[in-house]
C-alpha cells in the first residue's frame, strides 16, 4: 500500500503535514476529514514497496535517533507540548534523514495514537525497550525524564561502539592493504619468475609451489573467482539478514574463549542497566522481565532466560532465578541479591552495569591491543616467507647455470 504525503489545516488555522498509508487519494481525503482537518493537498506519492539503494541510504542511523531523543527531552523539559516539540524538530535543519519519521509520528499522534504506539511503527529505529520506557513515561507523566535517560544510555553505548570500531580500523586496514599487495604480487609479479624457475628445474619448497599454483589459478580463472567471491559476499549478506542464521552464527562465535568472556560481560552489563532503568521508572518486576526477555534472548540461550522469568512469575526471587538459570556471572547475581534484600535493586543494578561495563572495556582494550601486532606479524611472516622462497629458488637457478 503506498504512502501519501499530505498537508491539511486544523480548526485553529494551523497547517499540519504528514504521511498516510492508503489505497488511493480519495481514501486519504476521507481519513483527513475523519481527523477533523481540512485537506489542502495530497499530491506527492511516496512508494515504499520494495528495496532501493536510495531508500537504504536515506534510512536514519542510531546516532540520529539518539540526537532526536535528547533534543525532544530538552524541549519537553522546557515546557513544550509533545506535538509542538515534534513540529520544531521536524523543521530543524539537523533532522536530516529522520524528518519523514518525525512527520509520520506527528500524523499518528493526530490520528489518536499514543506516542509509544507511534514509535512502535518503526521497530528498526525504536526497539522494544525504547517503546516500553516511553509508554511508562506517558503513563507516569515523566516522559521528559524517561527520554533524557534513554538518550544518556544510548550515547554511552554509541561511544563504546565508536571506540571499539575505531580501534579495529587500523588492523583491518593493514590486513586489507596487505591482502591487496599479496594478490598483486601473486597475480603480476610472481608469474615473471615462474617460467624461469620451471625451465631450469629450480629447487622449490612447498611454500613457493603453493603460491605458484595460486598464481596460475588466479591468472587462468580470475573472472570466475571474482564472480564466485561476489556471489558469496552477496549471499552471506542476505543470510546475515535472517535472524535465525545471525543468531546461530553469533552463538558459534560466542563459544570462542576470548569472545565468550566479552559476551558474558556485555550480557551482565546490558541486563543490569536495563533492569535498573525499568525498575527506577516504576515498572513492576514481572513486567520488567517480560520486556527484558525480548532483549536478552538476542544474546543467546533463550530457554534459560525464559525459565528465569517463569521462576520469578511463580513467586521466586530474582537472584535465585538468575542463579538457577546461570545466565549471569556469579558476582553479578550476588550484587543483585544484595539489592533485593536491601530494597535498593534499581540502584544496585546500575552499579552492577557500571562494574561490568568497565570490565568489558578493559577486555576489549586487551583484545584490540593484540589484534594490531598479530596482524602485522602474520603479514610479515607470509610476505617474508614468500620472498625467502623466491630468492632460494632463484639461487638454485644461478647454481645450475653456473
Short description:
The chain is mainly alpha-helical and 402 residues long.
Could you give the topology of this structure?
Blueprint: E1 3-9, E2 15-21, H1 25-34, E3 38-46, H2 53-57, H3 62-77, H4 82-91, H5 99-110, H6 115-119, H7 128-140, H8 143-199, H9 206-220, H10 222-240, H11 243-254, H12 257-280, H13 285-296, H14 302-313, H15 318-325, H16 330-342, H17 345-401
Antiparallel strand pairs: 1-2, 1-3
Helix pairs in contact: 3-4, 3-8, 4-5, 7-8, 8-9, 8-17, 12-13, 12-17, 13-14, 14-15, 15-16, 16-17
What is the overall number of helices? 17
Helix content: over 70%
Q: Give the SSE string.
A: EEHEHHHHHHHHHHHHHHHH
In what range is the share of β-strand residues?
5-15%
Distance between the termini: 81 Å
What is the 3D form?
extended
Major sheet size, sense and barrel closure: 3 strands, antiparallel
Instruction: Report the strand count.
Output: 3
Mean of pLDDT = 78
Radius of gyration: 29 Å
Q: Which runs of at least 5 residues are low in confidence (pLDDT < 50)? A: 44-56
Supply the helix-strand structural class: mainly alpha
| Strands in their spatial order, largest beta sheet | 2-1-3
